[in-house]
Amino acid sequence: MLDTKGLTAVWREGLLAKAIIEGNTSAYEKHPQMIRFNRAKNKDALINQYLSHVLKEANKRKFNFDKSKIKNIKTKEKIKVTKGQVLYEFIHLKKKLEYRDVDKYKELEKIKFPELNPVFELVEGDIEHWEKVKDLESRN
User: Fold this and answer.
1) What is the pLDDT of residues 44-60, one digit of tens each?
2) CB atoms closer than 10 angstroms to residue 36
3) What's the predicted TM-score (pTM) here?
């Protein structure tokens, strides 16, 4: 669902999250999105699985991401994400794409609900308390 710029950013941010989880940096360790992984018991496996799914999409698009940066660690654990949070992030993405990639924006306009990375499990709920909501009309 991401455009080229978005997919590249997700890869970079995922690698940063991996470095934080592995204790290799303290930069952005307090970032609210890290809460998702920090709640997990098996966060090392989850971040690597998350990145492996990003890598699969990058490979489909003929990107050249370095697969040696991730480990092949498996877990059945899932990270719960609320429906409200996912919808908020989807709306936020579409607003960015409206200016950044009009074709991708038009493609996403037809989609009611985004596909999730397989490490996530959708649960009922509102936008997360840690989200810095820019548009309160997006709250469910």
Assistant:
1) 999 999 999 999 999 99
2) 21
3) 0.89
